[in-house]
Amino acid sequence: xxxxxxxxxxxxxxxxxxxxxxxxxxxxxxxxxxxxxxxxxxxxxxxxxxxxxxxxxxxxxxxxxxxxxxxxxxxxxxxxxxxxxxxxxxxxxxxxxxxxxxxxxxxxxxxxxxxxxxxxxxxxxxxxxxxxxxxxxxxxxxxxxxxxxxxxxxxxxxxxxxxxxxxxxxxxxxxxxxxxxxxxxxxxxxxxxxxxxxxxxxxxxxxxxxxxxxxxxxxxxxxxxxxxxxxxxxxxxxxxxxxxxxxxxxxxxx
Length: 254
What we know:
The chain is mainly α. The chain has a domain at 153-253. It has helices spanning 2-7, 10-22, 27-195, 201-253. Helix 3 runs antiparallel to helix 4. Residues 1-6 have low confidence and may be disordered. Residues 190-211 are annotated as: Disordered.
C-alpha cells in the first residue's frame, strides 16, 4: 500500500486511507470468506486434478491402445521376420547337410572309382602277366615239341640207318655164308672127284634144292626182320605224332 500510495497525490492518499478505514470488513468475515474461497479452490483443484487424471488416463489408455495396435503389426513382422530367419536357417542347415552329403557321396564315388581303377589296373597287370607266362610256357612247349620232333626224327633216322645197316650186314652174312658153302661144296666136290666119287643127278638136284631152301630161309628171315623194323618205325612215328598233337592240345587249352 505504501508503494501504491506513493504514486497518488497526498489528498487522494488521505481520502483513500479514510475510505479504507471506514469500509474495512470484519476480519472474521474475511477469514470465513477466505476459508470458503480456499475450500472452493481446493474443491476446484481436486475436480480439476480428477478431471485431468481422467483425461490423462484416457489419453494413456488411448496411447497404450494405439501403441498396442501399433505394436501388433510389429510383432507380426517380427514373427514373420523370425520365421523367415528360421526358414533361412533351416534351409541353410539343409543346404549344408546336403552339401556335406553330396561331398561325402562324391568322395565315396571318387574312392570307389579309384579302387575300381586300381583293381582294373591290377587285373590288367595280372592278366598281362598270366598271358605272358602262358605265352612263355607255350613257347617253351613249342620249342620242346620241336626238339622232341627233331629228336624223334633223329631216332627214326638212326633206327632206319640201323635197319639198313642190319640189312647190309645180313646181306653180307648171306653172301659170306653162300660163298663159304659154295667153297665147302666145291672143296667136297673136288675131294670126291679126286677120290673118284661122282654124285648122281638126283643127289645134285637134292643139293640144289637144299641150297635154294637155305637161301630162301635166309631171305625170308631178312625180309621178316625188315618188315618188323618197318612196323616198329611206323609205330614210333605214330607215337611221336600223337605225342606232339597232345602237347599242342594241352598248350591251346592252357
